[in-house]
Specification:
It contains 1 helix and 7 strands; from the N terminus they run αβββββββ. A 4-stranded antiparallel sheet has the order 4-3-6-7.
Length: about 110
C-alpha cells in the first residue's frame, strides 16, 4: 500500500491450517492388528501411551453395527479376540480409551 507521501507499507500474513490428519495417523500407528487377513484369532497390540490405558475393543461391520465387544481386564496393551463365529468379510476394529478412539480395518479370510 502506498500512502500520500509515497511511503510503501506491506504486511505478510502466514496462515497455518491443521486438519489433524497427522495426529490421527500417529495414533493409528499405536494399534497393531495381526494377522490381517485373519482366520480364527485376531491379535490387538497397543503401543506407547495406550499400553497403560484401560480400553474397549469393538468389532463393527462396514455399516457400523457392533458385532462384538471386549473390555481389557488389565492394562498391558495386548488382547486376543476369537473370530471363528464371524463370517468372511471386511470388518472394523475400534479401540476406545478414556482419551482416544482408534479404528482400523481387517479382513476375515478362510
Amino acid at each position: 500500500v502506498t500512502d500520500a507521501n509515497n511511503c510503501i507499507a506491506s504486511l505478510l500474513v502466514n496462515i497455518t491450517c491443521s486438519t489433524g490428519i497427522d495426529q490421527y495417523a500417529a495414533l493409528a500407528d499405536l494399534m497393531i492388528l495381526y494377522p490381517n487377513p485373519a482366520n480364527e484369532m485376531l491379535h490387538v497390540d497397543l503401543l506407547g501411551k495406550l499400553q497403560t490405558a484401560n480400553y474397549e475393543v469393538r468389532i463393527l461391520d462396514l455399516l457400523g453395527k457392533e458385532i462384538k465387544s471386549k473390555k481389557s481386564e488389565t492394562t498391558g496393551g495386548s488382547m486376543q479376540i476369537e473370530i471363528t463365529d464371524l463370517s468372511v468379510g471386511i470388518y472394523i476394529v475400534s479401540i476406545k480409551t478414556n482419551d482416544v478412539v482408534i479404528t482400523k480395518k481387517f479382513i476375515i479370510q478362510r
